[in-house]
Amino acid sequence: MWMSSRAANVPGSVFALMDAAKSRARARGRAIIDLSIGSSDQAPPEAVLEALREATRDPLTYRYPLFSDTAPLREAAADYLRRRFGVGVNPETEVLPLIGAQEGLAHLLLAVTDPGDTLLLPDPGYPPYLGAAAVAGLRTVPLPLRPERGFLPDLDAVPGDVQPRALLLNYPNNPTSAVADAAFFAQVVEWCQARGTLLIHDHPYAELTCDDYRAPSALEAGLDGVVELHSLSKTHHMGGFRVGFAAGDAGAIAALARVKGAVDFHAYLGIQRAATLALGLPDEVGRAGAAVFQARRDALVPALRALGWEVQWPQASMYAWARVPGLTDSVAFAVRAAEDCGVVVSPGRAFGERGEGFVRFALVQPPEVLVEAARRLAGIGVGETVRNAP
Ligand SMILES: Cc1ncc(COP(=O)(O)O)c(C=O)c1O
């Protein structure tokens, strides 16, 4: 009775189904290996935790933070963008702290679109994208991400009569772990500018890169008509702290600040101080965290390939995206993997129609546990029965 149509339009999540399967597996006494949630299992750098502890002892942090109080974090974000990507932004007008990239996206859509506007978004894609679009009352047009194109969208295939107000992308990508180079973003920005479309680039995995790969920023292609969402959740293992920032087009940032002004008072100042310190840490700190995921990738991907599953070698993010030959119902498959093998993964279907046939592994356990997960899955068929499950 009290549900608005915008609330009713937020899609349900298959993760509730997976949670129930996990409980049933536990009730059967199975030891669970949970690889379903992309939340870092590493701790934030000690200096970041210390900055937060210290802030809690400072009474100045107990009051409502105002925009002017966010200056140190905005300046740290601007310094980070310059140091890391060679991108210059004005910390007064082109940067805004967020309570996480997810919060930022939902409010950005409310800030820059009107109900009925069209949003182009990736399929497969991070599930809350659809919820944020529903809350903003948008018409969504999925952009298929196909393995044969390296999971990059084909913008030339977007029908001419689609007039998108905004295009949402995310590289390094969740769930496919695909990456995009600077030339790709330059083309996308050109495409958007020709149509008066805002490019929103969701960039939480900017620092979770492997080997010598370094992810570019979409802002390298220009700030006009581009907003990028950064997060400390993955890059600094601060998911629970809820902090990130938006940077880019001054008009879109001003609109976002207006909407957020009606909704929140910014993050707690202690969190802002911790994030300010985190963004200024030497690159090696971030590299050390990324190396942990790289070692896990090196263990899991060959083990999955040995099962005959198709996995592109991830250069970034914290996921392995595996196509299971013959699989047509990834949700049923993931439920059986949980109940019969005790291995909890995310069904590809949870990320969109184009995710069907795939499963996503979050690299949130040590290498030997990941190899054990693959071993347990060795007997699972794509049909109704599980063979040789432990
Ligand atoms: C693509 C993507 N965007 C946003 C988020 C959430 O980021 P935050 O914790 O900053 O809200 C996630 C978390 O998994 C993600 O994968």
UniProtKB/TrEMBL annotation:
Gene3D superfamilies referenced in this protein's UniProt entry, alphabetically: Aspartate Aminotransferase, domain 1 (3.90.1150.10), Type I PLP-dependent aspartate aminotransferase-like (Major domain) (3.40.640.10)
Please give the Gene Ontology molecular function terms for this protein: pyridoxal phosphate binding; transaminase activity
Membrane-crossing ranges are none
UniProt keyword Protein biosynthesis present: no
Names of required cofactors: pyridoxal 5'-phosphate
Q: Where is the Aminotransferase class I/classII large domain?
A: 32-377
Tell me the Pfam families matching this sequence.
Aminotran_1_2
| Record bears the keyword Transferase | yes
Read off the InterPro entries from this record.
Answer: Aminotransferase_I/II_large, LL-DAP_aminotransferase, PyrdxlP-dep_Trfase, PyrdxlP-dep_Trfase_major, PyrdxlP-dep_Trfase_small
> Keyword annotations for this protein?
Aminotransferase, Transferase
Give the range the annotation lists for the signal sequence. Answer: none
The name under which this protein is listed is Aminotransferase class I/II-fold pyridoxal phosphate-dependent enzyme
